[in-house]
């Protein structure tokens, strides 16, 4: 994999009058990488994106693209392009005019513009839509055109600010796949802001999880899911059970279970377990006992809530296996994998 | 289902009783409700206009003639009045639009303390009656007004004649019309989402392009509305010209009043009124036509 750093952010800080903002943002994004900024609303992800795009100026820090500082440039001079949250096509221009505008400003020849617009419309699967006005397009089509408009500028970094959040779930999935295809085909560098963890997990090369203005963790979707660095990431990404445990020496004890204390924690700890890492045991003496609180069938699988001495846990089971379980019955469970966090964090 | 049946049944019985279908009844109610405003329109607008048109077409002996109009367009003083009025109206409207647009754009895009204050204060002139405002202008700019006194106190020996002239009327027109124009345009500009402007900048539009290719096309309809309102208000203005206008040439409103109440020449006054009405109708026609002509998108 190519290791050129396309975009680097260092020591970025921006504080608003309200006291909110971002601090200590350090991030390096490689060429051809799709990075997601993920976090709850108000975590500062959009602030970071808008700072890269030039719509906000930071209090301190540096943003470089291809090792050139871009902070002194206004948005119109930056080698970035942005796809905004709401449909952002200019209502008084046709699709063709919307797409051609940026190229015209760059003094591209008329025939070249025509050719490029045709090409990019094919790329976003809207060939022949040149003459339509934005209001004649559906939401998905509008957002495709918005992506096309940004792509036409051949930006060094493409910024996307929750571009699909206004679309319905099915369309969102389609757009995600399409975007990923376009990104891979053009080896484009993208920064994608979202609050939807599923979206981030599905399209990103790496995810930057943010919380109250800070970066919590930067890792591949796989690592974020398997080894959340902090309790916040563990809570935010995927489904997770949290059990009470004690760290003693190099062991972490949860009732009768003992796990390796990798982080060298002490005292009371919170132990995070993915539902898929909990197994039902049929041996009466093994594992931990519990009582079934609820069985919810969710399509091809069932979600079982079990009350245990260490806390409430959720377990996913194939529907067939869940059929024999009923509320109130006693079961025994085993845990295959855990991550532990000190309770103060 | 049951309810529907019950409703249909009820309707049947009521129809049978009155002998009228529900539709007929509805349309009668509708006509009754429109009637008062129709009467008002007839007696306050249509009838007076027809009377004025008729009056303007009669000579002093009561015979049909175009003499009044001939006088209006050939008499030297009258011709000057018309030219003066049109000139003043067009110039005032254009300057009003330019200054109002600049003010509205400043208020839309500036976030400072000053703009905050201007935002709070700029529409005050709309709430000051024209008479009071005009006397205010006299007090400020008159030959012995505040400005003249300040100039004198600072050692100047004369103050240029400002009111009782074209300039004074222009000033008054601007004072009366800029706030409303700025208000209309401000609301149009507020309707442009920030993200549209940001996306335009993102693809490389500088300030000039942003203005000509985005802000103007997205607000030109409101500009037209503002232009129409300013034009109508200025061409028909009376208070300010009456108090601070020049004696000759005169604004049409004043000339009309003089023909009517001083010279008792109803025919000439009516001809002037009809002429002004036609000017305003032409403006109204262009206004309505451009409002109806939606862009193909029909947003």
Can you summarize this structure?
The complex is a heterodimer of chains A (345) and B (299). Chain A is α+β, with helices and mostly antiparallel strands. Chain A contains nine helices and 20 strands.
Report on this model:
- The complex is a heterodimer of chains A (345) and B (299).
- Chain A contains nine helices and 20 strands.
- Chain A is α+β, with helices and mostly antiparallel strands.
- Chain A has a six-stranded mixed β-sheet with strand order 6-7-8-3-9-10, with helices on both faces. Chain A has a five-stranded antiparallel β-sheet with strand order 13-12-11-14-20, with no helix packed on it. In chain A, strands 15-19-16-17-18 form a five-stranded antiparallel β-sheet.
- The longest helix of chain A has 18 residues, at 169-186.
- By secondary structure, chain B is mostly helical.
- Chain B folds into two domains: 18-56, no CATH class; 71-292, MetI-like fold (Orthogonal Bundle).
- Chain B is 77% helix and 0% strand.
- At the A-B interface, strand 6, helix 2 and helix 4 of A face helix 9 and helix 10 of B.
- Chain A: GO terms for molecular function: ABC-type quaternary ammonium compound transporting activity; ATP binding; ATP hydrolysis activity.
- Chain A: Residues 7-237 form the ABC transporter domain.
Using brief descriptors, characterize the structure shown.
heterodimer, A: 345 residues, alpha+beta, Rossmann fold, OB fold (Dihydrolipoamide Acetyltransferase, E2P), 2 domains, 6-stranded mixed sheet, 5-stranded antiparallel sheet, 9 helices, 20 strands, B: 299 residues, mainly alpha, MetI-like fold, globular, AAA+_ATPase (chain A), ATP binding (chain A), ATP-binding (chain A)
